[in-house]
Structures are given as structure tokens and as C-alpha cells.
Amino acid sequence: MTAEHLDVLIVGAGISGIGAARYLRVRHPKKTFAVLEARGATGGTWDLFRYPGIRSDSDLHTFGYEFKPWREEESIASADRILSYLRGTVTENGLERHIRFHHRVVRANWSSADGHWQVEVDRGDETVTITANWIFCASGYYRYDEGYTPHFEGRDDFAGEVLHPQHWPEDFDATGKRVVVIGSGATAVTLVPALAKSAAHVTMLQRTPTYVLPLPSKDGLANLLRKLLPEERAYALTRRKNIGQQRLIWRFCRRFPQAARKLIRWANRKALPEGFPVDEHFNPPYNPWDQRMCVVPDGDLFRSIRAGKASVVTSRITRFTPEGVETTAGEVVPADVIVTATGLNLQVAGAIALAVDGRPVSIPDTVVYRGMMLSGVPNFALAIGYTNSSWTLKIGLLCEYFCRLLAHMDATGTDTAWAVADPDMPTRPLLDFGAGYVQRSLADLPKQGPAVPWLMSMSYAEDLGLLRTGEVADEHLHFTSSRSATAERGALQSERPSAPAAGA
Length: 504
Known about the structure:
Elements: E1 4-11, H1 15-27, E2 33-37, H2 45-48, H3 60-63, H4 79-92, E3 99-101, E4 104-111, E5 116-122, E6 127-137, E7 142-147, E8 161-163, E9 178-182, H5 186-196, E10 201-206, E11 212-215, H6 220-228, H7 231-255, H8 257-271, H9 278-281, E12 294-297, H10 300-306, E13 310-314, E14 317-321, E15 324-327, E16 332-334, E17 337-340, E18 344-346, E19 353-356, E20 359-360, E21 368-369, E22 373-374, E23 380-382, H11 391-412, E24 416-419, E25 428-429, H12 436-439, E26 447-448, H13 460-469, E27 477-480, H14 482-495
Parallel strand pairs: 1-2, 1-6, 2-3, 4-19, 6-23, 8-17, 9-10, 9-17, 10-13, 11-12
Antiparallel strand pairs: 4-5, 5-6, 7-18, 14-15, 15-16, 19-20, 21-22, 24-27, 25-26
Helix pairs in contact: 1-11, 5-10, 6-7, 7-8, 11-13
Keywords: FAD, Flavoprotein, Monooxygenase, NADP, Oxidoreductase
Organism: Lentzea guizhouensis
InterPro entries: FAD-binding_MO, FAD/NAD-bd_sf, Flavin_mOase-like
């Protein structure tokens, strides 16, 4: 049976995969493509995670797509509204017929002779093979099947329930319960005020404080512009304003870390009760933006603390006890429920086993080209967004460059593109980010180089030139045509003398 062939195979139907499919459909309407989704629904993160209060920590005017205005009043949005936005994108662009659920890509082998990928796909009841000229991997960079939970001594001794946000039970009810949330990242600061609405009390138990920044959930200027201007114009202006604002805040924090620290501390102290030990619980030992800052819309975390519904304990955990969690200070934090908001496990390329002409690809030995391709791996694109601003800003630019690259290859009659890195080029970890979930996984990630195009840029302004308006090709990107190579091989074979007939 002949394998199905596609021009582009997109892996993942989350925010990156949906965006890639839309760009491809609009800019290359004649190309065949499919979006393979291992789960049974679109939306990726926003469909998978079901814990209370789940929301964005970026404004939707930049976290949303450039081509689709965000129409809600709240710019810091809940998961259900983000999911509705994503699924509206699917419907409006006729992408339903391209998406295939319960299709998990297991392995892919690039054939140089054929100029395409041979992709093994698990459909649950059977395994099928699809061939594709390109793979666009839009599966993000963390594992969807499990979160990260460190070992806690005495876990089996705890008499209550232990939950991880990535596997939240639908029937959980916090009413009247004492809840301990272990962690201090974006998930923890989201969970605490959401659970505090019904729980008897919620304690955020953190080993190390995180920078927490209260911001309005509504963008007043954006909502005003929508009343005064056409929707697309208002959205474009708001998006430009917020991109600049994000960049300004990040650069200020990096250039003047002590001043940024003081400003954040001032905002925290203003939002917290009189006499609250701000320096104990909201004064990280690192500089702002060494790790991602947590945003709390309308200061909801601080309001829960002011109301006495939530509290913070900063200490290391010694063990779980039947009654709760014991800290190194000798305190037992009482709990009926413990939530381990302890982070994620990262994985690159959806754990697809990649090979080139039968030789396995060691991803940690590759270098990322233009933040998208892996050195030495032909026709393979990887979508990783920004860590210091909205994820989707980078994804949109990567999709634009990918479409420009396809057009360039069509114009030049080539079907194979691969990036070649100098083996003596110095490299460093892919992400310059201090978050624990990143640090745990650096050894498994690709590398980045010292300068463009091998630098994993985190600057939207720089990426505009590199990905949207700059030259598509450079000396590091090589092109060839399998069709011409096959013709050359055929010509060489025809020129060879025929083997003598038997008995001659």
C-alpha cells in the first residue's frame, strides 16, 4: 500500500500548530498539509490543563495571533476564552479537515535519495506511515503526559490527597479544605487565589520567592481604541504598544536590576497587608528576569492574602506528615490537600525519534539555526517561542519565515534545505533562563551559537529583520534537489558499460 504523501506535516494542534496551519493555508494554498494531534482535541496547553483559575500570564493582544484580533475586554484571559479564540481560528480558516486527532508521531527518518521524511504515526489501533517533504514540529517544549514532581519524604504517610496541576481531577472540590500549594511559579500564583475562593485556607509553600507583578486584567487603552477605531487598526496599535512595553520592562530590569527590584518591592508592599514580611516572601535572591516574572491580574494573589484566605511560607520541606508538610524550620503546615505545583518536564520535538538516512539524530549535538532548524537535519522546523515576552510573537515570525523559505525553494527548484554549523563554533545552552524546569533539561536540548543566525534570539525587534524582512538564505543554509541528484545518478548508471552476457 502506497503511503500518503504531504508537502508539510505539522505536529501538534496547539497555539503554535494552529498558527502554522493558518499561515500555510493562506500563503501556500496549493500545498498539501495535515496537523497531527496526539490527543483528542485542539488547543494544546489550554485544553490539557484544567486546574482552577488557569489563565495566560501574557496579554492576549501579543499572545494572540497578529492576523486575528483579540476582542475580549480582559487582556489577561482565562483558559476557556483562549480556547474559544483558538478554536475560532480553526473554524474561520477552514482548518478542521486538516487536523487528525489521536495521531502520535513516533519516529521520522529523512531519506536523502527521496528528498522526504518517512514518518511513523501511532493511531492507537494501528501504525501507519506518511511521507512528507517537511515536518513543522509545533508541539512546544514540555511533556504533555506528565509533570515534574520531586521526591518528598513521607509522601505515603500523608492522610489527605496529593494533586499535580497537570492532572487535575474534574470532580475536585476545595470547599472547606486546608490546601497547601507547593511552588512559587506561574501555576502556583494562579492556583492560590482561585482555590482561596472556596477553601478554608490556602498556603503557598515556596522554597525560593519569585518576582510577582500585579497588573490590570483589562487594558484600558486597548478597550478605548476599539471604540474609536476600526477593529483591525485598534488591535494593531495595541499590539505594537504592548510589544514595546514588554521590551521596555525587560530591558529596564536587565540594565537596572536594583532599581527594578525596588519598584517591584514597592508594588508588592502596597498590595499586601500592613506589616507583611515582604522581604521574606517576595524578595528573590536573583535579579528580575533571570527567571520569568509572574503576573497576577488585578493583584488577585495579594487580595487573597489581605483577606486572610491565603498565606505564604518560605522554607524547605523536610517531609510530608499525616497532618501536612513539615519544614526545615520545624513547622508543620496543616493540609487536607497538597498540590505539587512543582513544574514541568521538558522534551524537544515531541520526543520524536529523528534519523537522517537511518542515522539517529542526537538533538543535544545540534545547533539551532534562526531559532527554527536543527543543524544537519534537513527540512525540519521547530517552533519555540519567547521566554521573556509572549510566546506567540516568536511563533508568528517563525511561521512567516517558514513560508518564505518554502517559496524560495519553489522558486529555485530545490526540495531540500539544511543548516550547516561550523564544528569549531563555540556553543552554549539553548535557553539563557534560570527556571528550574529549564535547568533540569539543558543537557537534552539543542545548543545555540554566539551570534546570528545561530543565536536563540529573544528580541522581537531583532527577529523582525532576521525572519520577516531579511534574506531567506545565507551561507549557512544549503539547498539541493533530490530530483536532480536522482537524474544525475541515473545518467551515470546509463553511461557505464553493460555487464557482458553470460557465456560471452
